[in-house]
Specification:
253 residues; Arc Repressor Mutant, subunit A; Rossmann fold; 2 domains; three-stranded antiparallel beta sheet; 9 helices; 15 strands
Length: 253
């Protein structure tokens, strides 16, 4: 049996393997499994974080969030997985309601699943989503304006935030860059994070569509706690370890 106290390289390799398999590690569990001190585990996680392997969170660490691809690239990735999640999200939309659809390739897929006969007021910050919905004959479609970020495929900035502050949404389908039990929902870009916070504040129900590579991930800017989200629709490939400890409804599809 390996003496993990004596071989830090093997110890850190083991932790890295757990991160790859599970998406997160808990410090208390590592102390028991490896038979080392809390200080040793803290030092290991710090080194792995400096090397870009993981991001430290309260009580442990999560695997490092992958570099976000451009919106056009994301549209061609995980198409089947996103389609399943998108279809289920569309089924949650309530007739005669006002909904906000955040930018994202999964929600772009969702737009085509929204029944044409539903009488809805739909607001979005995504020009692509607005284009898909532009042929609807019932209800209203509103595209909030602002500077377009090519990475997110969305409008953002002070003008965009000010517009939604005058709106109340029955349902908001919020975009997710990372979702973690302790860190909650997070975003890659500061302006996007600020915008999402405003969306949640203006919404009666918050729904998050999540595919596997967003679960147990932490992006740079915190948006909300798990308790701020009402429903998560996630693909069956998603890792959900640790979410049983928070007040969050997760449906796997």
């Amino acid at each position: 049996m390996v003496d993990f106290n004596a071989f830090p390289e093997q110890r850190q390799a083991y932790i890295q393997q757990l991160l790859a398999e599970k998406g997160r590690v808990v410090s208390a569990d590592l102390i028991t499994q490896l038979g080392v001190s809390e200080h040793t585990i803290r030092r290991d996680l710090q080194k792995l974080a400096r090397n870009g392997i993981c991001k430290r969170v309260y009580g442990g660490a999560v695997s490092q969030l992958k570099q976000s691809a451009s919106f056009e690239t994301r549209m061609t990735q995980s198409v089947d997985e996103k389609s399943k999640v998108a279809k289920r999200c569309a089924m949650l939309i309530k007739n005669h309601s006002c909904i906000f659809i955040d930018a994202g390739s999964t929600y772009l897929a969702m737009a085509s699943y929204i029944p044409q006969d539903m009488d809805l007021t739909i607001i979005t910050n995504s020009p692509q989503i607005a284009t898909v919905l532009s042929s609807r004959n019932k209800g209203e479609l509103i595209l909030v304006g602002g500077k377009v970020n090519p990475q997110t495929g969305s409008t953002m900035g002070a003008d965009t935030v000010n517009q939604i502050r005058n709106m109340i949404f029955d349902q908001t389908f919020i975009g997710v860059c990372g979702l973690d039990p302790q860190a909650g929902l997070s975003a890659v870009y500061y302006e996007d994070a600020c915008f999402k916070k405003e969306l949640i504040a203006q919404s009666n129900e918050v729904i998050a569509a999540v595919i596997a590579d967003k679960m147990l991930q932490v992006a740079r800017y915190k948006v909300a706690t798990c308790e701020d989200i009402d429903i998560v629709i996630a693909s069956r490939e998603s890792k959900i370890d640790g979410f049983e400890q928070v007040n969050l409804q997760i449906e796997l599809v």
